[in-house]
Amino acid sequence: MRRNEIAKLQRKTRVRVAGLMSGTSADGVDAAIIDIGKDKIKVLAYDTFPYPDAVRRAIFRLVESKEAGAADVSHLNFVIGEVFAEAILKLCRKSGIGLKTIDLIGSHGQTIYHNPRGRRLWKRTVPCTLQIGEPAVIAHRTGITTVADFRPRDVAAGGQGAPLVPFADYILFRDKKKNRAIQNIGGIANVTYLPARCRREDIIAFDTGPGNMIIDGIISLATRDREKFDLDGKIAGKGGVDRELLKNMLQHPFFRIRPPKSTGREMFGKTYRDILYERVRRKGLSIEDIAATVTAFTAASISLSYRRFLPTMPDEMILCGGGAKNDTLVKMLREELGGVEILTSDEFGVNSDAKEAISFAILACATIKGVANNVPSATGADAPLILGKITPA
């Protein structure tokens, strides 16, 4: 893209942006197309495109292996780029939206490693994070300028590189009268707290702990891969919670760390899942009781995080992500949070499944317009920064 074309895009009062996202569950690619105007965001289309089985297996081999080499990372980086590009092309065909009407793409990519606490080398501790899904492939296949790789700049500035969606949450959900908690429950769960009359510097946001990751992993093990997740929470709904085990799970050190903080598979991934499953197996719990207990773990860890780290309980919780569809989990949240009104982002015109893809479209638009799009109070970065790397078409 020539410089004058970037300037033209910066001057536009309405920008059409596609957002792409795949979370820690690595279920597939969430794709959304939105129009961003001066005071309004309109969602035009959304869908989720599951990863091909071979690609999903490759992601987990890479994430869980201690022996993956540079060739594996490089190859999968380009493969995921192709899958992400295809998601946009499919969404355009399905929705009837012309590909050439899209001005910009914002891609989160697929996280394969995230360690903002860092590792020691060269006489210093250096943090790191890595999201793959080559933006050059996306830009070339679609012919659309792509903004990607949002996390590294925040990490370079001493931040956690997560959560990044508070910038979009602030734009979409702040209210003059109500204290709101926007609670995303994907593989990992994260909250954005927006007090009434919120300013950007008032935002509190952090990862609350595991979302669907432990539930999905345990169900997969317990059913020997016959089931990949607990649809609508039906299995958990038939079981009882092992309160002793739940109390022990909530002693995990992560829940005592003060925000800013983030987590992922490095802390609640395969190793944690396997140890936990061995414990519940030795206890002789039924699959229903196992599902109920790990679902209660997600609900209780969210409630615990609110009580420990929010200045006051929210008036409203706005749920988004796959966990918003788990009826048993939502029921447990209502029990844990008492008088907090629980809504979904759908009730505000934002599809709960599409919300994170929408968020990265908003982040990309801010990047191209030169607007700082991290929230230092959420990530711990030392300054407001413009996140994302621009790959011209």
The low-confidence parts are none
In the CATH hierarchy, what is the superfamily of the largest domain?
ATPase, nucleotide binding domain
The total beta strand count reads 12
The top level CATH class name of the largest domain? Alpha Beta
What is the CATH topology of the largest domain?
Answer: Nucleotidyltransferase, domain 5
First-residue to last-residue Cα separation = 6 Å
* Overall number of structural domains: 2
Written account of the structure:
By secondary structure, the chain is of the alpha/beta class. The strands form two sheets. Strands 1, 2, 3, 4, 5, 6 and 12 form a seven-stranded mixed beta sheet that branches. Strands 9-8-7-10-11 form a five-stranded mixed beta sheet, with helices on both faces. The longest helix is centred in the N-terminal third of the chain and has 26 residues, at 70-95. Strand 4 and strand 5 form a beta hairpin. The chain has helices spanning 3-11, 53-64, 70-95, 135-142, 151-156, 166-173, 213-222, 234-237, 243-249, 265-268, 270-283, 287-309, 327-337, 355-368, 376-379, and strands spanning 15-22, 28-36, 41-50, 104-121, 124-132, 146-148, 180-185, 188-194, 204-210, 316-320, 341-344, 389-391. It is 41% helix and 23% strand. The relative contact order is 0.17.
Outline of the structure:
By secondary structure, the chain is an alpha/beta fold. It is 41% helix and 23% strand. The protein has helices at residues 3-11, 53-64, 70-95, 135-142, 151-156, 166-173, 213-222, 234-237, 243-249, 265-268, 270-283, 287-309, 327-337, 355-368, 376-379; strands at residues 15-22, 28-36, 41-50, 104-121, 124-132, 146-148, 180-185, 188-194, 204-210, 316-320, 341-344, 389-391.
